[in-house]
TrEMBL record:
Domain of life of the organism encoding this protein: Bacteria
CDD domains (UniProt xref): MFS_MMR_MDR_like (cd17321)
Record's subcellular location: Cell membrane
Protein's name according to its UniProt entry: MFS transporter
Membrane topology: Multi-pass membrane protein
Keywords, comma-separated and alphabetical: Membrane, Transmembrane, Transmembrane helix, Transport
PANTHER family documented for this protein: MAJOR FACILITATOR SUPERFAMILY MULTIDRUG TRANSPORTER MFSC
TM stretches of this protein: 20-42, 62-79, 91-114, 120-137, 149-168, 174-194, 206-226, 232-249, 270-293, 335-354, 360-385, 406-423, 429-447
Pfam (any one): MFS_1
Phylogenetic placement of the source organism: Bacteria, Bacillati, Actinomycetota, Actinomycetes, Micromonosporales
Primary subcellular site in the record, as a coarse category: membrane
Gene: mmr_1
Major facilitator superfamily (MFS) profile domain span: 21-448
């Protein structure tokens, strides 16, 4: 005879299943973000193994972020159209398979193609994961805690990525940084298999023409920056022309991917530029520094990962403090303070690159930059959502995520372009550009 169930048993089972699903969703985003940082310390080994040029290394990173950023907005529409739970699980499964294909890539073009498809799979996961959390936790207080858990687990990927990547590369080469995603994807699929609250599908319209035009525009714009960095001026001019043409096609669509209404609220454009400037500086720095550490200081992959810890650890420990500051003072002071610290950190890194300063100076500059990023990113989300009209708050939040990814793409393309003139001098110029971007963002946001 089966034992009698007590009245609270079913509620505890539901909560347990729901919390396991939240863990799976969070690990899914962790996996997506990990792939944006773990490759940084693998660049020297990848360059040697596949005989990759600086431009080839840039495309292994930007191929991922171009597809990720350009497809984020339409991925939200797909989640509405076909169900967030289906899209999330399909994205995770595809991400695992494409990670295995990336690990097996025999050439740089094959790796870039796999990375572009990985970025598309990653874009499927992010908006769907937020929709799932909202459905799993309808109570506002529980939802806030769930989003905090999601952000903390996924944010740890930024800190873990360079260190884990360094260890993996030293043990098994650059291919290992992709193979680690395969078991992670299996775990995510297992944890989310019993999702207790599937998100229903709708009949939301999707403009495939506008989406394709935006992807081509972003890819061509990135190609133009990379070509300009290697002084291929005709190539750069043609690519820039293609980018402008396809962007105009997207703008003229009856259902453009970038919603016009999301730009109309005061303060939104400046906040979006802040989001782009921060990821420009962060991802560009993560691209440039491992090459500098290898070239100038002879550090291996694991050593480079450990050297970057002052930059990445604040992303794990600082968000609760930032949340309290935003609650007490609003988003403006943390955003401006964070941009100041990030700009000062990038300027310090530029000086360290030019002068070959000791690691103490480098670590201090990295810490300033890390604290700055961890102040700005949560606060700028609050700034966008508080400035947007309620009817377009979701679209504005999605646009911020897309702009951040496009800023990351531009950062790698523009800052990496300086390396064609030499690693030490080029790194200094690239990091100075990142500092200037932060200064420009602070000036615009402060005046808005």
């Amino acid at each position: 005879m089966e034992p009698a169930r007590r009245p609270g048993d079913s509620g505890r089972v539901l909560r347990s299943t729901r919390d396991l699903t939240l863990l799976g969703i969070s690990l899914g985003y962790f996996m997506v973000l990990l792939d944006m940082t773990v490759l940084a310390v693998a660049e020297p080994d990848l360059a040697r193994s596949l005989h990759a040029s600086v431009a080839g290394l840039q495309w292994t990173t930007t191929g991922y972020t171009v597809a990720f950023g350009a497809l984020l907005l339409s991925a939200g529409a797909l989640a509405d159209r076909y169900g967030a739970d289906r899209l999330f699980r399909a994205g995770v499964a595809a991400f695992g398979v494409l990670s295995a294909l990336s690990a097996a890539a025999p050439t740089v073009p094959a790796l870039v193609a796999a990375r572009v498809l990985q970025g598309a799979a990653a874009a499927a996961c992010v908006p769907a994961s937020l929709a799932l959390i909202a459905r799993l936790y309808p109570e506002p207080a529980r939802r806030t805690r769930a989003v905090g858990t999601w952000a903390a687990i996924s944010g740890a990927a930024v800190a873990v990525g360079p260190v884990a990547g360094g260890v993996l590369v030293d043990l098994a080469g650059w291919r290992a940084v992709f193979l680690v995603n395969v078991p992670l994807a299996v775990v995510v699929l297992a944890l989310t298999a019993g999702a207790p609250a599937p998100v229903p599908a709708t009949d939301r319209r999707i403009s495939w023409t506008a989406q394709a035009a935006l992807v081509v525009a972003v890819a061509a714009g990135t190609d133009a920056v990379i070509a300009a960095g290697s002084a291929s001026w005709w190539h750069a001019a043609v690519a820039a022309g293609v980018a402008v043409a396809f962007f105009l096609v997207e703008r003229g669509s009856g259902a453009p991917v970038l919603p016009r209404s999301a730009w109309r609220s005061p303060g939104i454009p400046a906040a979006l530029f802040v989001g782009a400037a921060v990821t420009f500086a962060l991802n560009g720095t993560l691209f440039v520094l491992p090459l500098l550490l290898r070239h100038d200081r002879g550090l291996d992959a694991a050593g480079s990962g450990l050297a970057l810890l002052p930059l990445t650890v604040p992303f794990v420990v600082n968000p609760p403090l930032t949340g309290r500051l935003v609650s007490r003072f609003g988003p403006r002071p943390p955003v401006l303070a964070g941009l100041g610290l990030l700009g000062a950190g990038c300027a310090g890194l530029a000086v360290a690159a030019w002068s070959a300063a000791g690691y103490v100076w480098l670590a201090a500059a990295l810490l300033l930059a890390g604290v700055g990023v961890s102040l700005v990113l949560p606060a700028v989300v609050a700034a966008v959502l508080s400035s947007a009209a309620p009817a377009v708050a979701g679209a504005a939040g999605g646009l911020l995520n897309a702009v951040r990814q496009l800023g990351a793409t531009a950062g790698v393309a523009a800052m990496g372009a300086f390396l064609h003139g030499g690693v030490r001098t080029g790194s200094g110029h690239a990091l100075a550009l990142a500092a200037a971007m932060c200064l420009a963002a602070a000036a615009w946001f402060g005046a808005s």
